[in-house]
Amino acid sequence: MSDPTAVPAPVPAGELAEEALSRDAADPLAHLREHFVLDPATVYLDGNSLGALPKAVEGRLAEVVSREWGRLQIRSWEESGWWTMPERVGALVAPLIGAAPGQVVVSDSTSVNVLKAVVGAVRIARQDDPARDELLVDAATFPTDGYIAGSAARLTGCTLRPLAPEDVPAAAGPRTAAVLLNHVDYRTGALHDLPALTAAVHAAGALAVWDLCHSAGALPVGVDAHGVDFAVGCTYKFLNGGPGAPAFLYVRDGLQERFDSPLPGWNSHADPFAMAPDYEPASGAVRGRVGTPDILSMAALETALGVWEGVRIEDVRAKSLALTDFFLRCVAAHGPDASAGGGLSVRSVTPAEHARRGSQISLLCDPAERAEPVMRELGARGVVGDFRRPGVLRFGFTPLYTAFQDVERAARVLGQVTGGMR
Fold this sequence. Notes:
The protein is globular, with a radius of gyration of 22 Å. It contains 12 helices and 15 strands. β14 (386-388) and β15 (392-396) form a beta hairpin. Residues 1-5 and 337-342 have low confidence and may be disordered. α2 (55-69) runs antiparallel to α9 (295-304), α4 (85-93) packs parallel to α9 and α10 (313-334) runs parallel beside α12 (404-420). It has helices at 13-26, 55-69, 76-79, 85-93, 110-128, 143-156, 168-171, 194-203, 295-304, 313-334, 371-380, 404-420; strands spanning 36-37, 43-44, 53-54, 104-106, 134-138, 159-163, 176-182, 207-211, 230-233, 248-251, 345-348, 360-366, 383-384, 386-388, 392-396. The chain is α/β, with parallel strands linked by helices and 422 residues long.
């Protein structure tokens, strides 16, 4: 049996364009590309920061503005279904992360939902055991998660312990209340072992909170299957919801009636229009709501999620791995020889193993200070990615619209740019 993680034999650079054309012709997801607004002169590999615009969104927003807001006005809260949007859109997100109905609500930003989830998890853990006064957090997490974890620790009287995800099984213990982890490292694209780490957290008697920002819409998550307690994620990356699109919050069914949100709002009240002075939380995932929903952004997201109808997340994952494998081969074929010395080189810091790779490839520039000018020059030549200090070039692959020909072109231009800077 062949090793799926083995590096394939080099292919001459001239043959890669022909291979890309052939693979696009055989791609079962290729037809989805036509649903997006894409510039044919540009290769867009930044969907891990902002997904491309689904074509249907523009018309939908025009309808919401002109008819629902413009003519129906306040009647649209009922007649156009505005009031139930957070749960309705949450139901569209749910199957993409492996959640059964009634556990996902869409509202607020990822940052706000991280606070809800972490504080909610700690409160549940400390109800069961007041001695649990420790909150573990991924030391390499996206900065906001770290900031909010620190605030959550102060709000709940916990000690914050940053650590590497692989150290969680040994570190979690009788004092641990909750653990906040990223499914995919935003900088390197490394995929962490959600099933094993969740099991380790539970074995210690703690609750697991996962940030799915870089995995939702890119690969199977299985929150229900793996017993995740809380999960949050943005919808403007691989879910293509648009800039500032509202985030989602997953609360496991068995915890919902114990979920004590640190941000109780009138939208999550059991009887919101009673305008009662005392807060009584609603049942279910609705407890994750706070204030008035962002209707325009929510409508854009709801329409964007329509692209997923009939699409299997397993097929998306298969294409993601194929795209990233092909990109690494193309970079090796088109790029400067790092062993030559005396100039600029790049090397992947994203794990080669499929089981440890998200849907991005991060290349480390040597010297690191050249990463920003390299990415700037790539953009000038029609290849859009981004960079993170120090020295990382990030390329995100959204299988719904990224073609193999995009991948080959991006690597070829990268080779020209880095070769010219030597």
